[in-house]
């Protein structure tokens, strides 16, 4: 009897011991759900904006006099439709989805995780209303996401590029294998072959990471900050109108700041014959042979693509959060 009577007390004591862990478990679960929501929302946005993305990549690969009409997005897009068909506008779709799963899942999905951690570590010195906390969180999340997802980014860009003699890649898996073999040529079966293959897949990682940081700080931070300002000033309340307004501004800001880095990244990733020796050499070559305006090649389509992507991703992300019972961003 005494053992039976003691049992409920033991259960109760055990429950009390576990209680402090419950908030942490719920918090970790929410971080996990935010990652899932961020990945799904950005994959949705990338699917919608893929035609704009591929035209932008083709524009950025054009090596000609800045401002030449042949590089306008309607000319490039029209030529693709005539010579390659409608399906060409969905080039690199699978690689794009894989990239968004990793890259955007991490850069947007872990943004609030790092924001919370930096806020706690600063013991309130970094305010939630200030930009410093937001920039630090976005920079950390983007650095991790961009560096890990670089191979998928390389494959996406390669599959979206124009090849006069026909596409060299049958599918995404074949593209991964082909790019890997580029770096391991002549060293098959050795450690050097693996090292060379990985180096090939991580080509342009510096530009990718810089672009990820620039894009995320200007996109995520501006969305977060504009939302806070509009709500705090009593201009707008939480809802679709606020999400749309904030995402419109965020799309413009991130397009302006990220386009130059994007041009460099695309050039490096498609440099199969290793004519460019890193980021600085690429920048120098563009400046010398094409002029400073070349860094804004494809800006119209970049804005169209990133603007669309930003609006769709944030509206979808906020909706998913609502459905999952997570507070708005």
From TrEMBL:
InterPro entries recorded: MCP_dom_sf (IPR023395), MCP_transmembrane (IPR018108), Mito_Metabolite_Transporter (IPR050391)
Chief location of this protein within or outside the cell: membrane
Biased composition (Basic and acidic residues): 16-28
Keywords linked to the UniProt accession: Membrane, Repeat, Transmembrane, Transmembrane helix, Transport
Positions annotated as Solcar repeat: 29-117, 129-229, 238-323
Subcellular location: Membrane
Membrane association type: Multi-pass membrane protein
Cellular component GO terms held in the UniProt record: membrane
Family, per entry: Belongs to the mitochondrial carrier (TC 2.A.29) family.
Descriptive protein name: Mitochondrial carrier
Provenance organism: Meripilus lineatus
